[in-house]
Structures are given as structure tokens and as C-alpha cells.
Design brief:
This protein has seven helices and 18 strands. It is an alpha+beta fold. The structure holds 2,5-dioxopentanoic acid and magnesium ion. 2,5-dioxopentanoic acid (DO4) binds next to strand 5 and helix 3.
Length: 293
Amino acid sequence: MKIIRFINEGLSQLAAVNDEGQIFVLLQSDFLALIQEADEKEISPLELVLKMIEGREALTCQVDQLELLVPIEAPEVWAAGVTYERSRDARNYEATEGRLDALTFYDKVYDAVRPEIFLKSTAARTVGPGGEVQLRSDSVWQVPEPELGLVLNATGKIVGYTIGNDMSCRDIEGENPLYLPQAKVWKRSCSLGPAIRLAETVDDPYNLQITSRIYRNGEKAVEGTANTNQLKRKLDELTEFLIRDNELFDGTVLLTGTCIVPPNEFTLAHGDRIEIEISGIGKLVNHVVGAGS
Ligand code: DO4
Ligand code: MG
């Protein structure tokens, strides 16, 4: 069971989408209200949704006919890094352009007990399905990072799964790891969506297929696939470090790191279309616009 938000007669509307793709309008204002109501009633979110849609008519349209909104206005989006071997190798390359002669920060963090976790975005910097992600004006090496996103409550419990794009500037990060916040955080540098899959309906989060495609002038320019079974860390390990001595807000999203990196010569350009698909969650599509657009 997935939860989406869409525009209905000018207003934001919450809805549940079952495995057959049928859409049922929900009365709650947003995903958090749904989770909170389930908590108050001491039932699971899935039970609550099933009760609400029982005997109700589904909408007569398909999800791709709706104008979707970001499924959650996450107050904060955090991100874990170097959680896949592929990410470690890509960072090593961008930091040394192939001149690798010693253990780097990235090798060390890949094996360390403490994971890399950084503040990636806020609601105002995050776009939803169909939205425009923006390029930085001072970078010539920019890529999307397709990642599984964990939707958390204030205690760090995983209440849902979504798709995230951790837009990144490889040249800025490669120049100096202390530039990480600038390589990661700027206007419209993060996207989430198109849906949140209720956590209890995901059998095995360590077996989700991730596919990413980038189209340029209507032609596929890059494609990559990965599986969350390649993840070095456990999801609970990441959330435990995130909540440690921290204040977390309901609806915080934690991106779990990328395993798909385009070829080194590739950089995003205005007009590109990015697709990120994760099995059981959906396909997040965004359009790339140049700096200042
Ligand atoms: O070390 C920098 C960030 C890594 C990251 O974002 C990732 O591995 O996905
Ligand atoms: Mg990332």
C-alpha cells in the first residue's frame, strides 16, 4: 500500500494506492496525520487505511493522470553517504582523479563504525514528482544520486519508504571534503516521491531494485541499476546514529546513500530528464533546469 498526495480542485489531497493501482481518497491532511491517527487508535497505518477504504469507490483514473505533489513535506532531509562500495570508489576518483595512493577519508568512513550522515535538505529546498531540480552555477560536474529514502517519525522509527535524489556536485566535493555542504545543499537540490510505501507492506527493504535513467533530447544518455542488498549498513544502524543526541521531527526523511554513479565524463545539463525507479515504490521523474532558472 502506497500513499500519494495530488492536486484536486486546487487543493492538496491525500490518497492510498493499492497493489492493483486503485486510488482511494483519504480524509487526512497529510501522511503524518495518517501515522498519528493510527498511533492514537493503536492500530497500524495499514489497518487504518484498509478500514477507511473498505467499501469505498476507487477513483476512475490512474496515478500517472494525477498532478502529484511531494508525498511528504519533510521538515528535514538527512542523507547517509559512502554506504555502497560504488559510492566509495566514485568519491575516491573525484578526490584524486585516478591518482589513488593511500587510504582516503572515503575508505575510512566506509569501514568505520560511525556512518557519514549529513543534513541534505529542508522542505523549501525539496521538490516533488515532476518538479524541477536545479543546477549550481559554480559546478561543471553534477549528477543525480538515486537513493532509497526512509520516512521517520520523531523517535526514528521507519514508517515508510520513498525515493530520493541527492543532487551532487562531484567537482566541489572532490576539491575538498570540507566543501560537502556546498556540493550537496542548494535551491531545489533534492527531490522526493512519487509515493510513500507503508513500511509494514515492504517485505524486505534489503532487496529493492533501483534503476536510474537520464534522458537528453529525448534519448537515453545514462542508465544504471543497483539493489539495496549491496548496502553496507543496516537501516537501523543509520537511524540510530541519526537520532543519537539529536532532535528529530515527525516526517524526517533519511536518504540511505547512492550505488549508481554515471560515467565520470557525464554531467547533468539543462533540459535533462531524470528517472529513478525503486521496485514497489514507483518512479520519480524530475526535469533539470540551469542555475538561476
Ligand atoms: O561523501 C559524500 C557523500 C556521499 C553520498 O552522498 C552518497 O554516498 O550517496
Ligand atoms: Mg548521496
